[in-house]
Amino acid sequence: MRLSPYRKYRFLEMIPGICIWTTFAIVISLSFIRPLWMVYFAIVFDLYWFLRVFYFIIYLFSSWRRYQSEKDVPWMESVRTIPNWQRIHHLIFIPTLNEQSDVLRHTFRALAESTYPKDKMVVVLAGEERERESFEPLAAELEREFGKTFYRFLITVHPKDIPGEIAAKGANLHYAGRQAQTLVDTEGWNYDDVIVSSFDSDTVVHPEYFSYLANVYLKHPRPTRSSYQPMALYNNNVWESPSFSRVVANSTTFWLMAELARPKPLWTFSSHSMSLRALVDVGFWQNDVVTEDSRIFLQCFIHYDGDYEVTPMYVPVSMHTAHAGTLFQTAKNLYRQQRRWAWGSEHFPFMLWHFWKANLGPRKWHLVFNLAEGMYSWATAPILITVLGYLPLWLAADVEKATVIAQTAPYVLQWLMRITMVGIFVSAVLNVYLLPTTIPGNRLLKLFVMIAQWILLPVVLIVFGSIPAIDAQTRLMLGKYLGFYTTKKVRTARVAT
After folding, report:
1. What is the DSSP string of 367-382?
2. Crossing angle for the helix pair 443-452 and 404-433, nearest 10 degrees?
3. Alpha carbon distance 280, 215 (integer Å)
4. Left (φ > 0), alpha (ψ -120 to 50) or beta: where does 101 sit?
5. What are the respective helix, strand and coil percentages of the chain, to the nearest 5?
6. pLDDT tens per residue across all 497 residues of the chain
């Protein structure tokens, strides 16, 4: 019996979840049946992760050095030396849903403080019809305060219940993008000369961000065939957030920093930039997916037959942690945020479906492996490291426990874990240097807490790493599709970035 396209695609959606649960089933079964096999495997597995941590630190330091050398450069001076730079306009999208006015005001204030000429910037505040009553007064207030700062301040309201869409940020961006295209056409601007930035509503840009972006774009040999990915810091409300939320947020920052140093498999993530030419060519962001921020890269990669890349940027943007006012609500928000990010596994069936017969070059399989391995490790590695280190030894028979390997394994594993702790120490130290310059209260105490909090990492990686990733990929496997959950952000004071 020949499978329908729907059945084929559903099978591809099931693969990530099947791999996770098959792995757990094999590990637990062999721990009972062949515990010594699993002890050997545990040593090899931990050694592999030790090498990965070493590899991670090398790339992390590479990005760190670039960040330190480039973040304070007056990039607008460099832009002014490029012939005909004035043709470049920035089109900035800020989709929002139920966002606090203080959060949005901080975002717009940072845009207004950018060194790039504001008369070359168009800002699009994209709201939702389902919250029109609260959005329109807020949008009018922001327009009165910031409308004259930029060349244009465009407000869009995405209609609800459009057939074929899901209630997600991508649908809002898709609608707002088409509205902004009309404005660009009216102005007569060349799509190649318009750089689009898609930001979360809490994104606070570095003052040099748009100047740096224009500099990179103008010097790129083929600027319309690349997206541009900045560093993501989670510093806006860092002093207000609980330690576990900060550890998760900073882990994301360090992961992205390491990825920036190895651009071949680099994807767009969260806030990113690209040309309007590429965006129009692919039909804007997809309006039926949750993770549109990374899907847009795949859309371009497929449309241009593999001739598309992501260029790293070392001037940062800063966003909020998942702090929601109380510990319980923060933990709930953080879990849902991580599950939404882990829903990026929805790209796996999409990639195989479109990559299988398409002539996209060898990079396509590199991208498939990068996504599949990353999502698989995200869900399994922290749990496997914990289980593999102890479960086989607990279940081994007395005769097996008397063997040399069983007796020495705990010490070998402990030393491997201690050496791997170097990665945690490096992250803790670098985290201090990424903090906002203004530190409220007792400076030494706050810095001590910022370093000491990393002791939570092993637990946090399971509770807010593996478990939400397993949740997301299991839902995909079962066809229980995840909607878009907007993470609530609480901000009680302005923090320098």
Report:
1. HHHHHHHHHHHHHHHH
2. 150
3. 22
4. alpha
5. 60, 10, 30
6. 677 889 999 999 999 999 999 999 998 888 888 887 787 888 788 788 888 888 888 899 899 999 999 988 999 999 999 999 999 999 999 999 888 889 999 999 999 999 999 999 999 999 999 999 999 999 999 999 999 999 999 999 999 989 989 888 999 999 999 999 999 999 999 999 999 999 999 999 999 999 999 999 999 999 999 999 999 998 888 888 899 998 998 888 888 899 999 867 789 998 999 999 999 999 999 999 999 999 999 999 999 999 999 999 999 999 988 888 788 899 999 999 999 999 999 999 999 999 988 888 888 999 999 999 999 999 999 888 877 667 766 666 554 555 555 556 555 666 666 666 666 777 777 887 787 777 777 778 888 888 888 888 888 989 999 999 999 999 999 999 887 656 555 554 443 33
The phi, psi pair for 193, rounded to 5°, reads: -100, 10
List Cβ neighbours of 398 (8 Å cut-off, separation of 6 or more): none
Phi and psi for 388 in degrees, rounded to 5? -65, -25
294: nearest Cα among 367, 233, 362, 376: 367
- CA 394 to mean position of chain CA atoms: 38
**C-alpha closest to that of 449 among 460, 461, 441, 437:** 441
pTM higher than 0.85 for the full model? yes
Phi, psi of 463 (to 5 degrees): -70, -45
- CATH architecture, domain 71-230+271-323: Alpha-Beta Complex (3.90)
Closest listed residue to residue 319, CA positions, set 91, 99, 73: 99
Quickly tell me which residue has 């800020």 as its tokens: 94
> Could you state, in order of their start, the residue ranges of all structural domains in the chain?
71-230+271-323
Cα–Cα separations (whole angstroms), residue 69 to 72, 198, 224, 314? 7, 25, 26, 9
Helix (H) or strand (E) holding 296: helix 292-303
